[in-house]
């Protein structure tokens, strides 16, 4: 049985279609991340799961129960919002226990649940403070704790770290991962931050225009993107793209005087195609001193950008701007003529017309 099952879900706002015949199954205990740019429908989908939006068509099942028209309180979910949404006049203890008191839960059980949440999230010393006396990271822990005390099977996170600085985001990302490992609850997490998605998720659903473009494990999405959108959205810096054609029966790629052998490409025989896009990750290119027939691209260095652990070298090659990761101690002079060796076993090839992976 799936923990969450979304079937042919459609949501229209007037004449505007926001979610389109969307299907999604989330396994018991799975951590799913909904990833995409602003306006892609990821938060809208989460709000539909939570019951905060009425859908136009389709069904939503949670724990084997059809909750399509159920109230949010009847769905057995805990939600953590982007804004902390804490009651400023209440202490942390009061914020954690407020919903349980409204549900008329016995005080002993309330105390037990609050203590458990405080232990898991390491906020025990903060229980008698008010939100105004907490840091951003501490407030977000309290917001997570408020969902945790409900003792539900499904947690929904709506960009919970986007209001925090980079250091706090990194710390809380680890805490959320640890929380999932400890609780093994089903979690659906919305973000536009691909680092969060790649580090947290069991599977990522990359969304665009209300449609899931690809649903797979993080490394599969990174290494074998299903289409040009996913390839360009995932990765920092983005994947390099060369527009050209496959020739010689599909055994070679040509673009602007560049000729590369497609031997080793995991897609196998691709056939002769007049318009294709070759995608290459910056770490799958190597700067070498000399040309190698069918394996290298001539390039000119435009910028050397130290990044700390390594450097990004930006180059002009085949009429396109490309980036390559190199060791930080290797400095490249602007204007230097070099050659880029291509690892075709790590390359991605897309049909330019359909934008789908070949």
What does this protein structure show overall?
The protein has 358 residues and is α+β, with helices and mostly antiparallel strands. The chain folds into two domains: 4-232, 3-Layer(aba) Sandwich (Rossmann fold), CATH 3.40.50.300; 237-351, Beta Barrel (OB fold (Dihydrolipoamide Acetyltransferase, E2P)). Helices cover 24% and strands 35% of the residues. A hairpin with a 2-residue loop joins strand 1 and strand 2. The longest helix is centred in the middle third of the chain and has 18 residues, at 166-183. It comes from Paragemmobacter straminiformis. GO terms for molecular function: ABC-type transporter activity; ATP binding; ATP hydrolysis activity. One of its GO terms (cellular component) is ATP-binding cassette (ABC) transporter complex, substrate-binding subunit-containing. Residues 4-234 form the ABC transporter domain.
